[in-house]
Amino acid sequence: MEVAEQIDVEQIRAAEPADLHAYIDGVVDGSVISCRFVKLAVQRYLSDLAVGANRGIWFDVDVANTWLDFFPAVLKHSKGKWAGKPFELLTWEKFVIWNLFGFKREDGTRRFRTSYIRIAKKNGKTTLAAGIGLGLMVVDGEAGAEIYSAATKMEQAKLSWDEAKKMVRKSPDLQKYVTEYANELIMPSTESKFVPLGADAKTLDGPNPHGILIDELHAHKSSDVWDILTQGTDAREQPLLFAVTTSGYNINGIAHDQDVYLINILEGIYEDDSYFGVIYTLDEGDDWQDEKNWYKANPGLGVCIKLDSMREKFRKAVRSIGEQNAFLCKRMNLWTTQQKKFIDMNAWAKCGGVIDIDTLIGKPCLNAVDMSTCKDITADLKLFDLPDGKTFIHTRFYCPKDTAIKRSNEDKVPYLKWAAEGWITLTDGNVIDHEFIRGQIRKDHQTYNVEAMAFDPWNFESDRQELIKPTDGSQPLDESKIIEFKQTIANMSAPTKEVESNILSGKYVHNNNPVLTWMMNNVAVYTDPNENIRPVKNKSFERIDGVVALIMATGLRLKKPTEVDRDENLREVGI
Fold it and tell me: Which of 86, 181, 338, 539 can pair with 72 through a Cys bridge, CB separation 3.0 to 4.6 Å?
């Protein structure tokens, strides 16, 4: 079909199955309970129908319907009360299939090559992935198609493949074309195969995938499996990577990266016509205890998820913080941690604007330095007030190169990636380079109007002396502007609460700094009997230096340096 022959929008909308048509209209008018990301995905679909031809995109109703028909006509369920019954797609699944396989490029090949779906647990995502895998082998008719259900471990990789195997056993139609072997489904007529692939990245080289299925992407600590398999798709005309996941506890993994990328597409920040996705979750500010909001994360609630079962899990979540975190993560599909966190990372993400630091040369700012122990990260942070009433956070991070290599290998924290992208400066050796860091501090004090700099005397006094009385002939800093800030709970409590308030009210701009974001996600809080709080790490190997520096700089703001008594007894900023 040529683009010029594209069916107009009204004809395509009229061709939608009745329940899918009602679902799309219901999301638009609000009668279908849905989150912001689902609404954006629907708006993207409608917009692409209307103006996609300008980009060489068109919609093939026949192919879309072929794929929708394939599920109930050929596939059968294998478990519980649904065992042996046709695979009737839910409306959210129809929306995914209709988009994924209906849209075409100008040359007639499939538009979307990558698909990312994040949805709460038990909404049928693994079964859907299995059906799509079989369809890629059978419906597409690709010669020598290689379909992989991929994961870092075979046990995980076999989940959707096992479901596909059971579907073949239940379907007389599929058994005519597909033969089952140990860990392989083979289609002799096209010499195609569907196999599970679970191994470390070194054993993944070589496949030439037509289809890649990744279930529970959040469990992948790195992008190795994703990267290596997608590199093998170059020889295919219309390959597809189909990833489905529930939220997890790791915002440094490949799943969260895809999450952020998709949101940018849905919000119109990025344009990528090859990437499809939708996220089912709660909106910011939603009351997770309100049942009607549960449907946003669980479009299968009442069908594949029993409402009584969800209510029982909810009652446990109300009684137990541990159960609450699991409920929010797996049932409400919210990114969280295994411990109670300091900040809602969704609120932090909303502060991720971009400011060019060069536009602030000569502007006033408050500075705080959290000097690390000999082998870890040092944070040098500045706060700039912006004309719109917000505050820009600019942070320099420093780390010994040997430490960065070790942390990257052992803790799977991407220090080296961050360094390559310019978010962190690596210094030579295995200990922090005090002289290098002091040199950058001096440069910044000459470049910006630093009104005051907070420091913790525990690990900074020798650096302070060198800054105010340099032995190398450097320009000394104004001693009166370098303010001691002991990290006691009395000092940290008020600015910690102020930082939390500023994040929740969207008053910060942090340039989407991934190092600071990682640190913010690492923060928990300790509360004393007087309700004073201070930041602590979730886990021993995690770092929060940038957040500590942010709190210290905020402490300076709460008690302006000009108001601080310079008497030696009052050099600690009392909050």
Answer: 86
pLDDT of 509 strictly over 80: yes
Buried b (16+ CB within 10 A) or exposed e, 477-514: beeeebbbbbbeeebbbbbbbbbbebbbeebbbbbebb
* Residue at 205 is within a domain: yes
Domain extent for 419: 348-570
Asked if 313 contacts 305 with a C-beta cutoff of 8 angstroms, the reply is: no
370: which DSSP letter? Answer: E
How far apart are the C-alpha atoms of 92 and 278, rounded to whole Å? 10
How far from chain centre, in Å, is Cα 60?
Answer: 32
* Predicted local distance difference test score (pLDDT) of residue 206: 65
Q: For residues 383 and 544, what is the distance between their CA atoms, to the nearest angstrom?
A: 17
Q: Within a domain: residue 116? A: yes
CB count within 10 Å of CB 221 equals 14
Confidence of residue 201 (pLDDT cuts 50, 70, 90): very low
Question: In this structure, are strands 364-370 and 391-400 parallel, antiparallel, or unpaired?
Answer: unpaired
Are 324 and 354 members of one domain? no
At 297, the pLDDT band (50, 70, 90 cuts) reads very high
Buried b (16+ CB within 10 A) or exposed e, 76-107: bbbeeeeeeeebebbbbbbbbbbbbbbbbbee
CB distance 77 to 168 below 8 Å: no
Phi-psi region of 281 (alpha: psi -120 to 50; beta: other; left: phi over 0): beta
Helix (H, G, I), strand (E, B) or coil at 90: coil
Residue 262 has pLDDT above 60, yes or no: yes
Please, which residues bridge with residue 484 across strands? 455
Predicted TM-score of the model (pTM)? 0.64
- The pLDDT assigned to 81 comes to 78
Q: Are residues 55 and 165 in the same domain?
A: yes
For the chain, helix, strand, coil in percent to 5 are: 45, 15, 40
Same-domain status, 361 and 233: no
The answer to the question of residue 182 being in a domain is: yes
